[in-house]
Amino acid sequence: MTLTAKSVSRVALVSSLVAAVAGAAVLLAAPASGAASTLAAAAEQSGRYFGTAVAANKLGDSTYVGILNREFDMVTAENEMKMDATEPNQGQFSFSNGDRILNQARNQGKRVRGHALAWHSQQPGWMQNMSGSALRSAMLNHVTQVASYYKGKVYAWDVVNEAFADGGGGGRRDSNLQRTGNDWIEAAFRAARSADPNAKLCYNDYNTDNWSNAKTQGVYNMVRDFKSRGVPIDCVGFQAHFNSGNPVPSNYHTTLGNFAALGVDVQITELDIEGSGSGQAQQFQGVTQACLAVARCTGITVWGIRDSDSWRSSGTPLLFDGSGNKKAAYTSVLNALNSGGTGTNPTTTTTTTTTTPGEQPGGCTATYSEGQKWSDRFNGNVTVSGTDNWVVTVTVSSPQKVIATWNTSPSWDSSGNVMTARPNGSGNSFGFTIQHNGNWSWPSLTCSVG
Ligand code: 9MR
């Protein structure tokens, strides 16, 4: 988890910074150029999407459709692409309601997440009583037929949904599908890849947000195993259904970052948070920031539009009230998206400055490494190597504040966001604590030879 800055002169500091994050070139800490006024536009500033679950029977509601068309650029069918909806009788497929949602979205230039090809729940009656090889074949046929029908039209599929057990064991959930053999999940992924090679294939689950949960670790180990054996998996969905008994964990960004480091995209797929007012708004902000802090967190989907559209409407868990008015939670998400964040994955990140011809040879390398994190702050350490007379500039992004330093006596610019530092004595490292105020992005570093 490092970020490295090299420089050969002060002049070079004004040259453009080039960052390579996990192999992809992105600009570091590029702030949003202006505040976007919709969730989708705000998310797109950092290359992400902002989606919602859609119910086909609400597509005649003009308030609903008005908000849908205005605010979101990704759509998930709330129920209409599930197994019971798409294969009500074995071998007879029904796509009409799924198509209504897909076509409405695509006509408006929105993308679609498919949900879900294989699941222990919402199975059609004929499948519920099946077992063994007959069930395995029926499941694989379902995956193949549905993914083939929507080939090229969905951005991503939740190939397998909710296959891990709740509680402390971190193991698989018992189900008729699980009893066909532990390899049912990878078999489903392989069938989906064959049917639609360009769709991103996701594993999707709930209560996998807290890094300390056994269930989170169970899913993580499965994804790591799949990646090591070449099972085709591209993404992991975190449903993110929160309430007071299951609040947004303070280590959410750690969870997302650790999964991303396995080489998969991560997505918040069914976000809702029961509550109201500023408490609810703050939790929505935290989830948004956790995604923004991870480069491979590619988007957020809320599980419905208005509170009254929610599967648990009494908990008022969404961003619009029953009349379609924006709630405080809406504003906090929009503001968080507008304050940007290219995010960083917990992998090596290199920042280099270009060299001005004719400069003296020499230089220095400053390496940032992540330290401990808490819900409101995180530590960073800088290690420097190179010639003696260098100095490091550390820039944090507003509203972050550096609230403590060690092994250094820095000087500050007038904004308080830029500190210029050398390690004390003959040391080669120093550290600081950043109060993130909702922005988890890492500071940018330069080092220069004086
Ligand atoms: O929101 C969906 C609700 O309308 C259905 O009755 C329910 C049936 O299982 O599924 C709800 O959506 C679930 C999603 O498909 C998977 N994760 C949990 C969601 C909320 O229960």
Query: How many structurally independent domains?
Result: 2
| CATH overall fold name of the largest domain | TIM Barrel
CATH class of the largest domain: Alpha Beta
Uncertain segments are 7-33, 344-361
* Overall geometry: globular
Distance between the termini: 28 Å
Mean pLDDT: 87
Strand order of the largest sheet: 3-2-13-1-14-15-20-17
| Largest sheet, strands/sense/barrel | 8 strands, mixed
Can you name the CATH architecture of the largest domain?
Alpha-Beta Barrel
* Structural class based on helices, strands and sheet pairing: alpha/beta
Strand content: 25-35%
Number of helices: 11
Instruction: Specify the helix fraction band.
Output: 25-40%
Q: What compounds sit in this structure?
A: ligand 9MR
Backbone CA Rg: 24 Å
Question: What's the count of strands?
Answer: 21
Q: What is the CATH superfamily of the largest domain? A: Glycosidases
